[in-house]
Amino acid sequence: MFASLLLLACADKPDTDTTGDTTGGDTAGDGVCHGGPDILLAAPAEGATYAYGEVVTLDGSGTSAIGDVVEFLWAVNGDLVQVGASGTWTADVSGALLLTFQGEDSCGITQEDVYISVGAPDPDDTGTPDDTGVVPAEASVTPFGAEAGLPAGTWSALSVGADGIVWAASTAGLVRLDPALGTSRVYGAADGLLSDSPTAVLAHSNGSVWVGHVGTVERQGEQISVSADGTLTVLQPIDYTESSEILAVLRLREQAWGAGAGDVWMGTNEGLCLWDQDVARFAEHAHPTHPHGYSAGVAFSADGDVWNGDAYQLSRWRYSNDGDLSPSADLLETVPTWPVQIEEPLTITDLDIDGDTLWVASSLFGVAQVSVGAEAGGSPVNLYAEPATARAVRADGLGNVWIGGDSGLYRWDGTLLNVVTGDWVPADGVQQITVDRSVDPAAVWFGTSAGLVRVIGVPG
């Protein structure tokens, strides 16, 4: 059902062929890499079956002949779920799942895969997030507005860090919300940001925050850190200066898995760009095909491919992780979903992947499902008319896909597209959506004209 992850080593790792290696690393004793570390996935076993909400033991080990520290990662269907050789994962995704154990040293990467099965959640289970990881029977809806210090404005992006802090880019500034305390702080140009109205934000797994703006040829945003007292420090500018075309960063997404783990992909006004963390380089820019335009959709599938949704079309790339987007980032396909009309660009506003399904939100055609499990060039598409103007789409990992648009909020339950109602959903709909995976079960955050809303479970 699921394709294996494609893990490609950095260009400066001369030999990543692990065929025949038993210990990896410098097996010949000649100072030359002959493969990644030797790893062993001890648990879970191939074909193991678990109940939804059950705690799964992850047990692995690894050695490196060259003596380097081995980094271990675990993923479920391509989503990073655990760092370290051993640990646990709560089975909060149902179905046939591909679980991957990956080890890396300076000579490369090796991995082992097993398929496990997780049963569907019990709709009558009344367990709480604190003890079972099962969605509570009664949904929890918590709004945050002016009383939490949030400014009035339009939300252009949301992101939640591993510490549970919510970052929101808005027309009124960059907002840092601490939901535990119910307090917030707003940052702008006076604090060192490029502008008072950022267009994109990403809370990176390393603790830093990336912020995008409609900027200039010299600067399009910044990577920042925030101290305990709230002081903001600019670590480095986002600086795509090799061409005079790139002026804005509209979307920021971190690649969480594989050889590109930690890389930051940026949708700009002129295609897809990249901060390659391994080589500390800004790489510009990958046009899907001409015509090209504003890229506001970025997503990653389990096979290692990067998907880009821009003003005209949807495209699929394979990246070699060497900091060079051309020609090393090969265009695999442009999904022939909608006709290209130069006079009326078909604006893709957001992308997200749930298993082997890519969800596409657009301001013109509504919402689409695209199969990412098919071979390149054969991705089938299903279209949905509602919401006609979609702004954001996110899968919560619990069987729901949330879609926000100008006309309201919708939830795909695996079979039907449901309209979500409630006094917390304004008449002008939902502008942005993100998922907080630092809590169990995951919490979904919505940006509306009334402020930010945290939802755990499915509101009636």
Structural notes for this entry:
With 460 residues, the protein is an all-beta fold. The chain folds into 2 domains: 1-120, Sandwich (Immunoglobulin-like); 140-456, Methylamine Dehydrogenase, Chain H (7 Propeller), CATH 2.130.10. Helices cover 0% and strands 45% of the residues. It has no helices and 36 strands. It has strands spanning 38-43, 49-50, 55-63, 71-76, 79-83, 86-90, 95-105, 108-118, 140-144, 155-160, 166-170, 173-178, 183-187, 200-203, 209-212, 221-226, 232-238, 249-254, 264-268, 271-276, 281-286, 297-300, 305-309, 314-318, 330-335, 348-354, 357-362, 366-371, 381-384, 390-395, 401-405, 408-412, 417-420, 430-436, 443-448, 451-456. The strands form 9 sheets. Strands 2-8-7-4-5 form a 5-stranded mixed β-sheet, with no helix packed on it. It has a 4-stranded antiparallel β-sheet with strand order 9-36-35-34, with no helix packed on it. Strands 10-11-12-13 form a 4-stranded antiparallel β-sheet, with no helix packed on it. A hairpin with a 2-residue loop joins strand 19 (264-268) and strand 20 (271-276). The radius of gyration is 22 Å and the shape is globular.
Write the layout of secondary structure elements.
Layout lengths: L37 E6 L5 E2 L4 E9 L7 E6 L2 E5 L2 E5 L4 E11 L2 E11 L21 E5 L10 E6 L5 E5 L2 E6 L4 E5 L12 E4 L5 E4 L8 E6 L5 E7 L10 E6 L9 E5 L2 E6 L4 E6 L10 E4 L4 E5 L4 E5 L11 E6 L12 E7 L2 E6 L3 E6 L9 E4 L5 E6 L5 E5 L2 E5 L4 E4 L9 E7 L6 E6 L2 E6 L4
Parallel strand pairs: 2-8
Antiparallel strand pairs: 1-3, 3-6, 4-5, 4-7, 7-8, 9-36, 10-11, 11-12, 12-13, 14-15, 15-16, 16-17, 18-19, 19-20, 20-21, 22-23, 23-24, 24-25, 26-27, 27-28, 28-29, 30-31, 31-32, 32-33, 34-35, 35-36
